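EI: anyone free to look at a 107-residue chain?
SC: sure, send it
EI:
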Amino acid sequence: MPNLGVPELLIIACVLVLLFGAKKLPEMARGVGKSLRIFKAETTKLREDDDDAGVAQATVQAQPQPQAQPVQPLPAAAPALSPEEQARQLEEQAAKLRAQAAANKNA
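SC: here you go
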Protein backbone atom coordinates (compact mmCIF):
# COMPACT_ATOMS: atom_id res chain seq x y z
CA MET A 1 0.00 0.00 0.00
CA PRO A 2 1.53 3.33 -0.97
CA ASN A 3 2.33 5.88 1.69
CA LEU A 4 0.07 8.93 1.64
CA GLY A 5 1.93 12.17 2.11
CA VAL A 6 0.69 15.68 2.80
CA PRO A 7 0.05 16.56 -0.89
CA GLU A 8 -2.03 13.45 -1.43
CA LEU A 9 -4.07 14.07 1.72
CA LEU A 10 -4.70 17.68 0.64
CA ILE A 11 -5.92 16.51 -2.76
CA ILE A 12 -8.25 13.99 -1.12
CA ALA A 13 -9.58 16.68 1.24
CA CYS A 14 -10.21 19.05 -1.69
CA VAL A 15 -12.09 16.36 -3.61
CA LEU A 16 -14.24 15.62 -0.55
CA VAL A 17 -15.06 19.31 -0.10
CA LEU A 18 -15.97 19.61 -3.79
CA LEU A 19 -18.12 16.48 -3.74
CA PHE A 20 -20.00 16.96 -0.49
CA GLY A 21 -19.63 20.65 0.33
CA ALA A 22 -18.06 22.20 3.39
CA LYS A 23 -21.33 22.11 5.37
CA LYS A 24 -21.88 18.37 4.96
CA LEU A 25 -18.38 17.24 6.00
CA PRO A 26 -18.81 17.90 9.77
CA GLU A 27 -22.15 16.06 9.71
CA MET A 28 -20.53 13.13 7.91
CA ALA A 29 -17.65 13.08 10.41
CA ARG A 30 -20.13 13.04 13.32
CA GLY A 31 -22.02 10.19 11.69
CA VAL A 32 -18.83 8.19 11.17
CA GLY A 33 -17.82 8.85 14.79
CA LYS A 34 -21.19 7.67 16.11
CA SER A 35 -21.03 4.59 13.92
CA LEU A 36 -17.55 3.75 15.22
CA ARG A 37 -18.67 4.19 18.83
CA ILE A 38 -21.66 1.90 18.27
CA PHE A 39 -19.44 -0.64 16.52
CA LYS A 40 -16.91 -0.62 19.37
CA ALA A 41 -19.67 -0.99 21.97
CA GLU A 42 -21.21 -3.93 20.13
CA THR A 43 -17.86 -5.70 19.67
CA THR A 44 -17.15 -5.18 23.39
CA LYS A 45 -20.53 -6.72 24.24
CA LEU A 46 -19.79 -9.67 21.97
CA ARG A 47 -16.45 -10.24 23.65
CA GLU A 48 -18.07 -10.06 27.09
CA ASP A 49 -20.78 -12.49 25.97
CA ASP A 50 -18.11 -14.87 24.68
CA ASP A 51 -16.25 -14.62 27.99
CA ASP A 52 -19.47 -15.21 29.95
CA ALA A 53 -20.34 -18.19 27.73
CA GLY A 54 -16.91 -19.69 28.35
CA VAL A 55 -17.34 -19.34 32.13
CA ALA A 56 -20.87 -20.77 31.97
CA GLN A 57 -19.71 -23.68 29.81
CA ALA A 58 -16.92 -24.48 32.26
CA THR A 59 -19.46 -24.41 35.11
CA VAL A 60 -21.83 -26.69 33.23
CA GLN A 61 -19.04 -29.14 32.47
CA ALA A 62 -18.00 -29.22 36.11
CA GLN A 63 -21.52 -30.25 37.25
CA PRO A 64 -22.42 -33.95 37.15
CA GLN A 65 -24.59 -34.95 34.21
CA PRO A 66 -28.08 -36.24 35.07
CA GLN A 67 -29.08 -39.59 33.66
CA ALA A 68 -30.70 -39.42 30.28
CA GLN A 69 -34.46 -39.80 30.17
CA PRO A 70 -36.27 -41.24 27.18
CA VAL A 71 -37.21 -38.58 24.67
CA GLN A 72 -40.87 -38.29 23.87
CA PRO A 73 -41.71 -37.58 20.25
CA LEU A 74 -42.86 -34.07 19.53
CA PRO A 75 -46.27 -33.53 17.99
CA ALA A 76 -46.27 -32.91 14.26
CA ALA A 77 -45.10 -29.35 13.76
CA ALA A 78 -46.68 -26.95 11.32
CA PRO A 79 -44.75 -26.54 8.09
CA ALA A 80 -42.09 -23.85 8.19
CA LEU A 81 -43.39 -20.48 7.11
CA SER A 82 -41.66 -18.34 4.57
CA PRO A 83 -40.28 -15.00 5.77
CA GLU A 84 -43.07 -13.19 3.92
CA GLU A 85 -45.73 -15.25 5.71
CA GLN A 86 -44.03 -14.66 9.06
CA ALA A 87 -43.92 -10.92 8.38
CA ARG A 88 -47.61 -10.92 7.41
CA GLN A 89 -48.55 -12.75 10.62
CA LEU A 90 -46.50 -10.34 12.72
CA GLU A 91 -48.16 -7.38 11.01
CA GLU A 92 -51.59 -8.86 11.76
CA GLN A 93 -50.64 -9.36 15.42
CA ALA A 94 -49.34 -5.79 15.61
CA ALA A 95 -52.58 -4.47 14.11
CA LYS A 96 -54.62 -6.41 16.70
CA LEU A 97 -52.47 -5.05 19.52
CA ARG A 98 -52.86 -1.49 18.20
CA ALA A 99 -56.63 -1.95 18.06
CA GLN A 100 -56.66 -3.26 21.63
CA ALA A 101 -54.54 -0.34 22.82
CA ALA A 102 -56.84 2.14 21.07
CA ALA A 103 -59.88 0.47 22.67
CA ASN A 104 -58.23 0.67 26.09
CA LYS A 105 -57.50 4.39 25.61
CA ASN A 106 -61.09 5.10 24.65
CA ALA A 107 -62.52 3.10 27.56
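EI: DSSP finds three helices and no strands in the chain.
SC: 👍
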